Please model this.
Amino acid sequence: MRRCPPSPCARPVIPGLALSLLLALSGCGGESGEEGREAMASDRAMLVQADKAREQAVDITEHTIGRIRARTAPTLRAEVAGRVVGLEVDAGEPVRQGELLATLDAEPFRLARDAARSEVDRLRAQQRNQQRQVERLRAQAEEQYVSESELDAATTALDEIRARLAGAEARLEQAQRDLRLTRIRAPVEGRVVERHISPGDYPGVGEPLFELVAPEGLRAELPLPETAAARVEPGMGVRLWLPSAPEEVVEARVTALRERVGDASRAFDALVDFDNPGNWRDGAGVVGNIVRDHLPSAVVVDETSVVQRPAGEVVYALEDGQAVEKVVETGFRFDGQVVIREGLAAGTTIARDGADYLSDGAAVRLRGGDDG
Model:
């Protein structure tokens, strides 16, 4: 079978269409092509959050969490032994200075007082009689009716009675004191934090009865590591607040430094005495910032703006849509911020969120709302 030659009308038209499309694109693609390239570049730019380096005053502080103690916290101990016959207060109750807390059986002490008083009365009567005898003998001795030896013996007897009377009076005073000590009274105004006795107990001399705290004068014990010893000293300012009420800040000063006995870490406590602002209690936790220096004018940035690179710590300044790497020297860090000692001027626009992903010269674009 013989094939017919292809007709001119049946020749492929694809090359002609391609040429027409190419001409059409080249004729209208000048301005649109430039916009396309800019769009592609914008898509490749890193999206960052901008911030500015701020100039502000900064306090250099040592941050610590410690414990509140009452400066006056007496433990009342039995000064006489006796059975508990009365109990007036319990743990947690407030007390006034001089208020009766408990009573011990006073009968044995009352009997001892009465016996001591009788002895004093007897010796006082003897002293009066002997005093009259000495005066009579002295008058007779002047008339030489009695010898000097008789007068001397009477005088010696009087001295002995006086000595015994002094001892009896001291015993009477002790008996009266012991009787008073059967009534246990609060030495300070405060609060009972612990009761160690119950009715019917028989505490011996020296055994604890009550533990009190006086809430007016408080002391913060702020633990610090050994490395802070050279940086903290008495007289430095301190800001104190309770974790539950950070808005209520007490200003005070470091009173003293105290080493922790038996602590292998060689840590120490900064002791801060202060007046109770109202409702702070012994044993509560307390947050303390010890102000060891003050910078009146420091450059400060957010910590997320500072990243680590081979050259060291850097921040990225934002200039004409590009990230410019600036090596900086950092200092004190506080509340998510860091002081820049060198390498950055206040007011410089820098990258904050997204700085970790930047490099020097990288294209950047700002998130909505940033003004760069």
The longest helix spans residues 107-142. The radius of gyration is 47 Å. Helices lie at 14-28, 30-44, 107-142, 148-180.
